[in-house]
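Notes taken during the Thursday session

The instructor put the following on the board and asked us to keep it in front of us for the whole hour. The protein is Mediator of RNA polymerase II transcription subunit 18. We were told not to look anything up and to reason only from what is written here. First, the residues (201 in total):
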Amino acid sequence: MSSHFYEVALFGEFFSRDLKPILNRITLHSESSHPMHTREIVFEPLDAQHQRDVGSEPIILRAKKELSEPESAWVLYSYLKPESVRVHPEATVRPWSTCQVVGDALSFAAALGYVRRSQIYKRGYVFRRGTLVILMFQQEQVDPKTQQPIPAHTDTLWEVEVKTASPIRNTQETPLSHSVNAVLEVQLFMKGLLDLRRQDL
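Then, after some discussion, the predicted structure tokens were revealed:
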């Protein structure tokens, strides 16, 4: 198991009316922030349904591209099933792998035997705090004709992900508990404004 890279994360959501106080508190506890606008395409294996039928969980691939940086490359990544709540009750800890794709990520995924399942656009902010990133965004729908994002309705829920900025190994130098404690600190200073919790994805 130690050969795996992991992500440690907490999740939350809130209504638009609470945006300002939440934005202010996260900004206060972060080193930097910038706007984000990403396109994310989800792929599953051609035989995903068969895998589910026989009781195994197919490996889902996600291709992600930052739209606000014209030069940004597609990043292809995949999460495995989160570790059990018994092992990590306070935060979501899941093995993940990632690779930078030069050129067309969509053809690359197809060549691996994957089909496109869905796509979403996310628009909001990214904050850096030590080894963590805090993503705060609204999902945008896709116009079926143009395949372009449609700006989110003002009442669209905001989503928050607090997670390790890069994949980490569970070693003596960098035990997972350090990252769990880091996300729990964010949970603590957001208390009363935003409920951050573990979730099984």
